[in-house]
Amino acid sequence: MNTKAYGAHAGDKPLEPIDIQRREPGAHDVQIEIAYCGVCHSDLHTVRSEWGGTKFPCVPGHEIVGHVTAVGADVTGFKVGDTVGVGCLVGSCQHCSACDGGLEQYCENGFVGTYNGPAADAPGHTLGGYSQRIVVDDKFVLKIRHPEAQLAAVAPLLCAGITTYSPLRHWNAGPGKKVGIVGIGGLGHMGVKLAHAMGAHTVAFTTSEGKRQDALDLGADEVVISRNPDEMQKHAGSFDFILNTVAASHDLDAFTKLLKRDGTMCLVGVPEHPHPSPNIGQLIFGRRSIAGSLIGGIAETQEMLDFCAERGIVSDIEMIPIQQIDAAYDRMQKSDVKYRFVIDNASLTA
Question: Measuring CA to CA, how many Å separate 321 from each of 153, 255, 275?
Answer without folding.
Answer: 15, 39, 36
